[in-house]
Amino acid sequence: MGTTAPVDLKDICIRFGSIRVLENLNLTIAPGEFLVLLGPSGCGKSTLLNAIAGLLEVAEGEIHIGGRNVTWDEPKDRGIAMVFQSYALYPRMSVRKNMSFGLEVAGTPKAEIETRVQAAAQMLKLTPLLDRRPAELSGGQRQRVAIGRALVRQAGVYLFDEPLSNLDAQLRAELRVEIKRLHARLGATMIYVTHDQIEALTLADRIAVMQGGVIQQLDTPMKIYREPVNRFVASFVGSPAMNFLPGRIESDGAFQFTHEGQCPLTGYRWRTPGFAGAATLGIRPEHILAGAEAGPSALTAKVEMVEPMGSDSLVWCRLPNGAPLALRQGAETSLIPGDPLPVAFPGDALSLFDDSTGVRL
Known about the structure:
Structural class: alpha+beta
Largest sheet: 6 strands, mixed
GO molecular function: ABC-type transporter activity; ATP binding; ATP hydrolysis activity
Oligomer: single chain
CATH superfamily of the largest domain: P-loop containing nucleotide triphosphate hydrolases
Order of helices and strands: EEEHEEEHHHEHEHEEHHEEEEEEEEEE
InterPro entries: AAA+_ATPase, ABC_transporter-like_ATP-bd, ABC_transporter-like_CS, ABC_transpr_MalK-like, ABC_transpr_MalK/UgpC-like, Mo/tungstate-bd_C_term_dom, NA-bd_OB-fold, P-loop_NTPase
Pfam families: ABC_tran, TOBE_2
Organism: Elstera cyanobacteriorum
Protein name: ABC transporter ATP-binding protein
Low-confidence stretches: none
């Protein structure tokens, strides 16, 4: 359905009065790529998406879609289709009419409209619902209709602005899978805005993590999860969050925890070899070695709480220096509050951050 197109953003600046939301932002999205813009509220991700869509004017810079400069083109002339957070369906129109209305206005032949609507409905399991009105549909079905309305456009680029945030957890998971399948089937360029890291990690070919109007890191989900470029990315991506432990890197290369204990850094992939000074050690809960696995360099933590999560358990501990620590254990763990627990941190799973800049070392 349709052709796929690259998107190229060159030195994009967006201002609201004297407030600079985006400044000299550059981003290239390959044809057929699924790019997720991820970040907290107010980071500029929806602003950027609206600029690509033509719903917001840029103060400076250029937007190229499919190799064509569309910076000042109307939304309808950009070769894009958009799915919003609110379904934005016409309440008095049937599902079929909601999906076909834009094509009718554009003067598309009736036979072509029917072919496109049927194809999109089949892809999104909407065929039995084509004669219903939005009020007769569930939230998930309405969002499918909104996606179907975008699909029939047969656009070069599909834009999604937090399309699942109004749905409950189970529906979000179901539609996430459907969007992933849709992308695999269409091979279309998709740009997807979310503040939900699970959506980002599961859907994206690449993720652009944004904060304060700046892309902090642009990389594959695995690279962002395993090697965050700074402390903000490390803290924002991952659930439960990465553990952060204060200390300093000694000149001999070991990490000295504040007050008590050391951690060898054997196997750590340095970006700044030879660094010594105040730093923070980051490690994800599933990468911590515990109990007999911890070995001779273990610290002894004290278990404070065990949280059964179904497939595994989250164990909340406190280190001798008082620092909190969360780690994952098997669902059948016998640990209880008050238990001592040896823990160790393998060098190849660590993230080290410079305390003065927050940048990965």
